[in-house]
# Entry
Amino acid sequence: MNVQRQPVTGAELEYPRLLSPFTLAGKRLKNRIVHAAMSTRYGRNGEVTQRFVDYHVNRIKGGTAMTITEPMALRRGQASDTRMRVWDQDNMDGLKRLAEAIQAADGHILTQIQDPGRGNHKPGRKMKALGPSPLPDDWSWTIPHAMSTGEIRQMVDDFALSARKLKAAGFSGLEISGGHGHIFHQFLSPWSNIREDAYGGALENRCRLIQDVIEAVRASCGSDFILGLRLPGDDGIPGGVDPDESERITRYFAAKSQVDYFCWVQGSHARTLDMHLPDMHWERGTFFPLIKRLHDAANGIPCGAVGRILEPAQGEALLRDGIGELVMMSRTLLTDPAWGLKAAQNRDNDIRKCVSCNNCWGVINLEQPLMCDNNPRAGLPDEVDWWPKPAAKKQRVVVVGGGIAGLEAAWVAAARGHAVTLFSASSELGGKTRLNALLPGCDPLSSIYDFQQVMAKKAGVKFELGVTVGVDEVLALAPDAVVLATGSTMAWPTMLPKAWQDEGFLLDLRAITQELLLHPVKQPGTAVILDMDGMDGTYSAAEFMRDKFDRVVLLTPREAIGRDEPLVRQQSVYRRIYGKRIDVQLLSEPTAKSRFEDGVLVYRNVINGDEGEIGDVALFTYATPRRPNLEMQGPLEAAGVTVHVVGDAYMPRNVMAATQDGHVAGNAL
Ligand SMILES: Cc1cc2nc3c(=O)[nH]c(=O)nc-3n(C[C@H](O)[C@H](O)[C@H](O)COP(=O)(O)O)c2cc1C
# Structure
């Protein structure tokens, strides 16, 4: 292994600002790198788990100065299985253990004060919710219980009491989660707050709840306790908190000078949920111009910039440009806990980069422990700058397939000391992910196979590219084990005649996309995509086609598009598909009555059978459930070879499953 482990110093530092120390509430931060709050769902029975400790401590060990945890249960009513209790004594040992480990690693830890109020990211209405006014959440249409002033006071007292407990446990501070459509935001926004008492109406009144909390926490914890304030910068809701209102709110709190830092997040619920975590279709440093404007309204109070900061150079530049004093990242540090360490060692190429796919959010919204597409070791104890352990016995391993599952298996196995040969039918590595990465806004996907290639090179994988191998060629290498990463193929849509498949005039979306990428000419007429996929790649292809055809129609037998993406991503799909005027025909499928030779597609409603037509069809293609390509498995096993099947070849799923499978297989060899 040739990974350079020594930090570089002084003039050699590539990112001097990023790595320079900073002081908050009298506490020294070793650099400007901050882990922004991220729900991990690593708690169990409301208690701190070792995985939760490992996750945060590993970020600090990996070069992060300060980490902000997900909101904890600072009040009795907030407890859940994964939300860790602070309000009772039971959990103090866990909290202390966490804080001590963070301090020992030269870091600081904060948690968030948050209550979702009426907000709900799950289907259906909440059975219990507090809020400023009885107005519906725009996603779940939950109407909260409008809090009385007594209930508000109680909430503030509860927060202050728990804050003191956290300080006693060794936490360095707290961040008030005042954005993202949660309860503080609901009080701040005239759209959700129509109270007529001291907590509603004028800006000062709408800010009062947060101000009460600030004062109560200061009174219980003193001035040497970091208190951060996360505010909405632009919630995207008409009549809500827009940048002008955010600037006024920022000035209000800045004038009080009682918080140690500000940061701003965007979006609310439902229609603007995607602004919480801008996905790969949003530009890097998504909200920097807005953050700069709000930073300049902050009266010199330090500010954190957050939102699609992927690379150390971006962090360095934002500090240089006065956008913030702190570089706050959540998904980036989930993907590579050693991001800071690698930046300090001038090892940018070794950084495993966030894809901004938001599958992490999808996982936690299903109440599952946090995972990452491009970090198969998220939350494991040995995550920081991980390199595989040597295998006890060196083997000859053949990997068939150069997609991300095969590549992951190949580099990990080679790094363990095995002699690995990887065959890829394509002359380029990355498989279907590479094709997707060529679609509009999808280039961050390349960071998965780019990283894998860098590692594979270090580990000594032997590549045979542009070679389609059969069983005989594989057996000729006398492998001890074979990893089959042969992917999958979109199935023929069975509602259409089989004869049409045999005639071969209708091709699946992947084949068509490849063709259109090679010959990117504009064509008249309508392109129709049968969407039985529900995932981002199909919508990115639709966007791509929108520039090539007069009209694009997505035809789906489902009741919604984008259903297999996490809710945040679904919102982003809607924003793009409806924004680009791509037509969507729901609950519909094509029929054999279609006359493609005349440019006519006949579809039927899958519920009532009613038929309709789409005319001027220049292209029909299908994105359907995929079938594993497993032709080689039987013969190889019959020849006595141990076969590991990974990725889509095992079971067609998503990128996260592919990297996981490959990683596990590489480690198991
Ligand atoms: C899985 C996930 C969980 C998150 N949980 C929280 C949270 O508990 N509190 C919060 O304020 N923000 C949360 N966020 C938002 C992040 O703090 C951050 O604002 C957002 O992800 C954009 O930053 P990034 O591009 O560095 O990921 C979460 C983001 C993700 C992806």
